[in-house]
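Section handout, structural biology tutorial.
Before the tutorial, make sure you can parse a SMILES string by hand: atoms, branches in parentheses, ring closures as digits. In the record below the ligand is pyridoxal-5'-phosphate, and the chain has 492 residues. In the tutorial you will relate the predicted structure tokens back to the input. Do not try to memorize them.
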Amino acid sequence: MTDNALGKGSVTITEEAFPLGRDSFDPASGPTAWLWRHVLDVLQAEREQISARPVAPQIDLARLRSAVGLYDFDEPAHPGAVIDDLVELLRDSTVHTTHPRYFGLFNPTPTLLGVVGETLAAAFNPQLAAWSHAPAAVEIEAHLLRFLGARMGYPAAEVAGSFTSGGAEANLTAVLLALTRMWPGYGTAGLRALPGRPVLYASAESHLAWLKIAHATGLGRDAVRLVPVNADLRMDLEQLTARLDADRAAGDAPFLVVGTAGTTGAGVIDPLPELAELCRTYGIRFHVDAAYGGVAALSDRLREALTGIEQAHSITVDAHKWLSVPMGAGALLCTDRAGLAETFRVSTSYMPADIPDTVDPYTSSQQWSRRFAGLKLFLSLAVAGRSGYAEQLERDAELADALRAHLRDSGWLITSNTSLPVVCFADPSPPADSWKHHTELANSVVQSGSAWISPVRLNGHAALRACVISHRTTPADIDALVQAVNDARRTA
Ligand SMILES: Cc1ncc(COP(=O)(O)O)c(C=O)c1O
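Predicted structure of the complex:
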């Protein structure tokens, strides 16, 4: 990192005069064009150089803070130099999710069209609270939701929902909708109006946003029953049934079962048809958290793994996960337009009046003012086509299969079984502190800079986890990962 703060460092400042201060808000076309060209050059260089860089640089915290702190904003600075400064900070102090050997959290390298879509959305900046302010944007998002909902198996014409900041907000929306639908008095009188304590059920391998949601909604964290999983890491139906019965007998009020389609740790899909049937029997709601796994529905080949998802009252799916658009964009899908309207109803004198046959997003979602999250997905999907996406998803799944085979050949134990590209593997003969051992193996790989993987605990057992999700990843990157974990084990 160089000391380029305030644009006075080693960056060559272009001769093109760029207005500073207030005049920088909206410069004339010459300087504007120069700035975009500069950004394009920076992005092009990033793209060309990324695979040669360490996936996760070593962080020097003191240096990072002092470099950021040099900006006191008293003096205007040249945008070229500031951008170069920022790029250097990002390059030196970021885990590179756009790297072909980032096998990390479920954040694929964004598509180019996704990045362009994000830029267009920012530039037009439509206000998505009210339909009348952003008819094109609202209709584009509604069209996307219908497309996604139809791929999940909902009747397209009935699909309702909203774009969200991500999966956690979509799951929150599902809980609010479920409470509102189960107990019409909930919206006005709150939890104290309910006949017993509302409780919800998700597998012990589910994403723990459920705890934060229970905290935020006043249900309380104890209201989340984390149901044990079987040896295959899927929710144990017998234990679920026993827990439901016990809770009812104790006077609690079960209201929601969550099936996870692609658990965060292992990419495993809960038994969705059985969960749907059980929820019908108990007269309670069924939600599927398919934050990343749901995107498999775009591939005719992978869709089968999601059978049963269409029976859910609501579904979470994230565009910023396997649909490869920049963060943040998630979605809540359902077929209950009226339920959403009841959950988020509000009317004010300062919002524009309703327009017949349209829905104001602020009356059917948690957010009010909102960015145009759907544009990047629309653009990316329109240009790649569903077939282009299907090809990429299937390629990820094939590379993950290849990785599993290579790991087996190298003596690793594959510890989960899924058609999604989440590969969990373990040292078959770990020392007594298996968690420490696997954490050290992951750290060693990350510190080598050659790849990014993480340790994971699956049903109490330590393992390593690699998500194969970047369109930049090649078979050579898979080989490099196997080499890196083998080296780590050899030197452990
Ligand atoms: C299954 C699942 N649900 C929900 C979430 C939360 O999604 P987000 O981070 O987009 O809020 C995640 C994130 O990894 C997840 O894996």
